[in-house]
Amino acid sequence: MPHCILSTNLSNADVPVEFESKLVALLAPMFNKDPVRFTVQVRTNPRTTSAGTDAPTALLRIWAFGVFSKEKNAEYGRPLYDFVKEHLPSVEMDRIVIRFHEMFPHDVAPKE
């Protein structure tokens, strides 16, 4: 049940409409997870300052069960940075931040 949030100070028009589906297409095989289990949210146009400037920036946060480790995170990094840069070309590579968050079963509310 991976959950992804992209926050960028770009406008909604600057984020391709297929961003979410293409991110899932990249992550599902990488994490060995069923694509229908993913949730992706794109948050555009928040007032953001990073490194002392309001230049275009992007923060991609990903939560998932049992897929993160020091070794795996190193493998995930380059394809994810490249993906964000490809789809948000006005964001410089040094202004992209990707954070991984391990989830645990007790982090999700039960339905019953």
Short précis:
The protein is α/β, with parallel strands linked by helices and 112 residues long. It has two helices and four strands.
Are there runs of 5+ residues with pLDDT below 50, and where?
A: none
> Total helix count?
2
Placed side by side, the strands forming the largest sheet appear as 2-1-3-4
Helix proportion: 25-40%
Morphology:
globular
Distance between the termini: 17 Å
- How much β-strand is present in the residues? 25-35%
Radius of gyration: 14 Å
- Please count the beta strands (DSSP E, at least 2 residues each): 4
Q: What is the succession of H and E elements?
A: EHEEHE
| Largest sheet data | 4 strands, mixed
| SS content category | alpha/beta
**Rounded average pLDDT:** 96
Report on this model:
With 112 residues, this protein is an alpha/beta fold. 28% of the residues lie in helices and 25% in strands. The chain has two helices and four strands; from the N terminus they run βαββαβ. It has helices at residues 19-31, 70-87; strands spanning 3-8, 39-44, 58-65, 96-103. It has a four-stranded mixed beta sheet, with helices on one face. The chain is globular and about 40 Å long. 15% of the residues are buried. The mean pLDDT is 96.
